[in-house]
Amino acid sequence: MQTVTAEYSKVRLEDGVLSITISTADHGASLDSEGVAQGTRALTELGDRIGSILLRGTGPNFCAGGNVRGFAAAPDRGAHVADVAENFHGLVRALDAARVPIVAGVQGWAAGAGMSLVCLADIALGGPATKLRPAYPTIGFTPDGGMSWTLPRIVGSGRAREILLTDSVLGADEAARLGILSRLVGDDLVQDEALRLARAIAVGPTSAYEGIKTLLAESRTNSLDRQLDAEAASIARAANSPAGREGVDAFVEKRRADFAPLHSH
C-alpha cells in the first residue's frame, strides 16, 4: 500500500486505486464527514497518481445516509444540514470531474446519500442482499448528492419520480434491471470484486477512459451533430496517444496490450 499522508485516515492509494471510505459501522453506517472531506482533498491533491476510484463502506452496509441523530441534535438544523450538504457536494463535484472510472462496492443498504453515490459511480457492484432507498421523504427531506439529477438519467424521469416520491425500496434484482447497479455478485464477494475491478481499471488505458468520460459528460448537452464532431476529434487523439499505439500494436501482434508502463502511479 502506498502511504499518502497521516491526515488521510479514511483514504488510501494502492496500486493506483484511490479507496475512499464513505461510511463505517459507527453511527449506523451513516455518511462519514471526515471520509467525505478527505476524499475531496485527495482527488484534488493526488491527481495523476490515481488510476481508478473505489467508494466503499467498511461495515455491513455501504452507506445508510446522513447522520439523522446528528441532524436532530443540532441547535440550528437547517444550518447544520446545509454544512453537511456543502461538504458532501464537494466530494460529488470532485467525483463528477474525475478523469478516471469510479467503482462502488455496494454491500447491504445504500440509502439517502449512499444511494446518491451509487448513482454517481460509473460501475456499481452489489449482491443479492443489496437494497437501495432514497430515504429523504421518510424524514421530510429532499434529495442531495445529485440524486435528483443522476437518477432520472439512469432510470428515466417517470420512474425516478415514482422512486423519489414513494421512497421506494429497491431490491438488488430491480436495481440491476434499472441500471442503478451494474451487476450482482455474491454478497460475500462484493468488496473483493469491486477492488479487483478497480485494480484492473487502474492499469488500463487511462487516457481512453478519460476520453470516454469526457464524451459522456459532453453528451449531456450536445446535439448528435456536435457529439459526432467530438467523437471524431477524440478518437483521432486516441490513435496517436501512447495507449492507442500500444493497443493497436498489441492487436496486430496478437498479444495482450500492456498499458501499465504508461502510468505514473
TrEMBL record:
Species: Rhodococcus triatomae
Protein family: Belongs to the enoyl-CoA hydratase/isomerase family.
Keywords: Isomerase
PANTHER family reported in the protein's UniProt record: EG:BACN32G11.4 PROTEIN (PTHR43459:SF1), ENOYL-COA HYDRATASE (PTHR43459)
Any one GO molecular-function label of the UniProt entry: isomerase activity
Lineage, top ranks: Bacteria, Bacillati, Actinomycetota, Actinomycetes, Mycobacteriales
Iron keyword on record: no
Top-level division of the source organism's lineage: Bacteria
InterPro entries: ClpP/crotonase-like_dom_sf, Enoyl-CoA_hydra/iso, Enoyl-CoA_hydra_C
Protein name: 2-(1,2-epoxy-1,2-dihydrophenyl)acetyl-CoA isomerase
Entry keyword annotation includes Cell membrane: no
SUPFAM superfamilies linked: ClpP/crotonase
